[in-house]
Structures are given as C-alpha cells and as structure tokens.
Amino acid sequence: MNFLSKVIIQECNSYDLEKVTDKINNGIERLGGWKQFVRPGDKVLLKVNLIGPKPSESAAVTHSEFVRALVRILKRQECIVWIGDSAGGAIAGIAPTAQSFHVAGYENIAKEEGALVKNFDREGVVEVCPESNSQEKMYLAKPIFDADVVINLPKFKTHTAAIYTGAVKNVFGCIPGLRKAKYHKVAPDPESFGDIIADIHKAAKFHLHIMDAIIAMQGEGPTAGEPYAANKILISTDPMALDAVAVHMLQMDVSDVPILKTAYKRGIGEGLLQNIAVEGDYMSASIPILKDFKLPERFGSTKKQNYKALVKVIDFFKTRPKVNLKKCKSCNVCVESCPMEAIDKATKKIDYSKCIECMCCHELCMHKAVDLKKDNPVANVMMKFNRSKYK
Ligand code: SF4
Ligand code: SF4
Q: Do 15 and 66 touch, CB atoms closer than 8 A?
C-alpha cells in the first residue's frame, strides 16, 4: 500500500534529556535524518505551545526540557536556534507573552543553550492573504518567514471548547498579541475557527511537527486540566496525520474534533488512518489507546455552547494600546516599530483604523508608556483587580 503520510510514535516516560534526545533523533532517522530538514547555518524556529504564564510541570506548555533537547540537537547540526510564540489571553484583553517565556523556563534555556527568544509580540508581522477569504488580510509573526526552517512543537492537550489541541491548532500563536481576539470573534465556534487555522497552515510553511505527549493534559485543558502520563513523542511532517494518530489514541477520529474536521476538508494533510503509516515504537495496527484519559466534561454533553456569549465577552474585554503622554519620553521606538505605521510621531496618537493590536508598541516601550486600555470602563476596573496575576 502507498501511504501518503508517516507518523512516528516513540515511547518516552520522562523528560530525561538523554532519553528525549535519543527518542527524537531515532524518530527523525525514520523520516530520513536531520539532513533532510536542516543544513548548517540555517535559522531554525521552534514554535512552542506557550499558552500563558504556566510552568512546564503544569502540562499546559511544551515542556522546557523537551525544548532544551531540540535546541541541543539543532546546535549539533550547527543551526541558529530561535524559540518563539505569542501567548494566549487575547479574549480577556491581556498579552502575557514576555512573562510566559520566563515562567515556562524558555528564557533560561535560551540563555543556557545559546538560543534566541522570539517573542512574537515584539517582532513585527508579515501580511498574508487568507485562502478562505474569511478575512481580508491576516498578519502573522515575522520570525515564521525569517526562519529557514520552522519546527512546530505542540503539546498534547484537551481543550474545553475544541475538545483536543495538538499540531494543527498550535499554529494559532503565530498571530501576535491581541489580534487573536478578532479571530475568536469572527469564528467563535470551533468548526469555523478551523478555517482560520487552515489559513495559517496555507500561508506559512511548517516543515516538521514534534509533539510533546510525554506528560499530556487531560480534563479541562488547555490550561486548567491535569497532567496525564501519556509517555509518547509523536513526529511527522504532516500535522493532520499526527493529530489523526493522537486523537485515535483517545478513541476518536478527525471528524470528532471540529477544528480538525474543517482543516482536513481544507486539505491541510492526511486525516484517514488507513492512509497513514505509523512507525517507531508502534505500528499502524498497534496504535496504543490512552487508558482512563479524561476528556473535557463538555465533550459528550448535549448542552450547546453559547457562542454569542463568547462574542460578548470578547467585546467586553476589547483592549487597545494607548500612549500615556505623562510617561512618554518621545524616543519614537514605538513609532518606528509599528508594522502598520499607525502611531503619529508628533502626537503619539494611534490610528485605530490601521492598528492590528499586535502589541509591538506595548512590548517594546522601555518606559512602560504604552498602556493597554479596555474600551469598557467596567472591564478596566475588573482587570485592575486581576492584574497581579499577569505582572
Ligand atoms: S516607545 Fe514609549 S517612550 Fe518611546 S515614544 Fe513610544 S510611548 Fe513614548
Ligand atoms: S499601534 Fe502599531 S505596534 Fe501598536 S498594537 Fe497597533 S499595530 Fe501594533
């Protein structure tokens, strides 16, 4: 039989660096070896899952030792390694990417291993035309296009709204800052959200997908679930095939997961198990099932999600950058780094018809003079109570 896609499943029961490295290297050998993917001198971006300021042990983010293993492997291939993402939080109008890099341990790893942190909220954007025409334009973080090779490092997790999140959905962090809220608003249900995700896959190239499923997240993911020792690493060049195999381990298929269902229809990759060759520590006929793995409670419940309420929440927390003239030192870093040229040099007023809420100005201002202001004053008061969480 001619298989269209290959997925490697490796058994790995700890984040011991040597073990993770061996398992990843052995998996890559089965895909033709590292030379198929990288050359000396290549800039390689590791697109992690950095959902928010969560430690690696929480299972909410790609584990820092998993990232360390990849950095070391790529350094041995004489590559320049970047670790990049933009954190979640857009629905609540917060942009905690810098803090998340610190809490997840990536900042330390970058320092210790000689990699560079690429905070997508600081790096500018590239304008792309979404294939689905659901949006006029889409703005993706520039490092994705500056890198020679992009390696997606998703985490195996449940998701209360989307049921499951893995290789396909992990690319959402390529949209910087609070712009993500706009896409949650125009596509509040997981099925239409799949079109946004498919647009990102079509607009950018992700060369390889290596999933951290050593300690997965079960229950009420993607942040409030519990760790589950799945003891696996999944590797593929095809994100859909990887996710098809991952959800099979949960006794589901691609059509059970709305984002995957849409993305599969859009031709992101192979979603049918009979067309996927499984290798590594398991074969196609022996894909393991994750016993007693808890799905989100809502999965299987007949209660329908109220997507109108979600849109109301997004509107309630709508946040915009605003220059605080009392603190501003007129250095013009924000003016020069704004990818949309939305900040007036003389007055520091922001033209919101141009602003894409990427948060570059907020992230780059050394004088903390770009505030994040909520349109709704009640939301502003609420966020003040909550602020310590995100400092
Ligand atoms: S970067 Fe900060 S201090 Fe500099 S001009 Fe912009 S707001 Fe003012
Ligand atoms: S003003 Fe410019 S830099 Fe600031 S958020 Fe808007 S688009 Fe980004």
A: yes
